[in-house]
Amino acid sequence: MHSTRPTADTIEPTPGLLAYQEPGSNDWRLAHHSGLVLAYCRNQQHAEDTAHLIADWVDWTMPADPIRSEIAVDGESLQFLLSYEASATAADWKTARPSA
Prior knowledge:
Elements: E1 10-14, E2 17-21, E3 28-32, E4 37-41, H1 44-54, H2 64-70, H3 75-84, H4 90-96
Antiparallel strand pairs: 1-2, 2-3, 3-4
């Protein structure tokens, strides 16, 4: 059986995080290497910037389950913090990020 799932070329802006353009769209996604999407991004630069801003939160090269227990923030808060980057400066972001 052959997969009919669309595929996309990816870049790895930081270890463990992948960015790719959504097939058939101008939008980009930032995802954990497991395939779990972390952020919807406007373009490649936005995806890369977001990856660099969250790179030191946790070792993103680990499997997804251990990461879930290491990040001291719930999914809703993480989603807010990732979307906050769209209008924040790097200095604002560092203030808003969860403490480890």
